[in-house]
Amino acid sequence: MPEEILAEGAKEWEHALVGFFVGKKIPFQSLQAILIKKWSSAGKLSIHTAENGIFFFKCEYEAVRDWILDNGPWDVWGVHLALRLWERDLPPINIGFTKIPVWVKLIYIPMEYWTTQGLTRLASVLGSPLHMDLATEVKHMINFARV
Fold it and tell me: Cβ neighbours of residue 122 under 8 Å, at least 6 residues apart?
């Protein structure tokens, strides 16, 4: 296949996310209704499904995709939606997830740990910290930290 054709096809999906539900299948119609309602304030997107329980979330802009990633993790009916960036040349049936980001709630944190470095060090015991939520970052609620 000529590279120009592949590049044009990839451009359509360049702001897409790939996801699946951990442990349970969610019907497509329900998923679509719930997530469009949750995500539509960020911008325009469409949801597509593959037969193997993999979903593609095609975002019109990079900012929409980034908003979805930054405001997760997402659940539908209490079932976690694992998301990652779409990559070129990966068939839908072979989409692999080797890591799944999750929010961790840290409780009973001494006040001296309430710095970015302190919370990062605590969270690193569980994995590689990626983000902290806004309430944790600005210390609005100090009864727990979400990282």
Answer: 106, 109, 113, 145
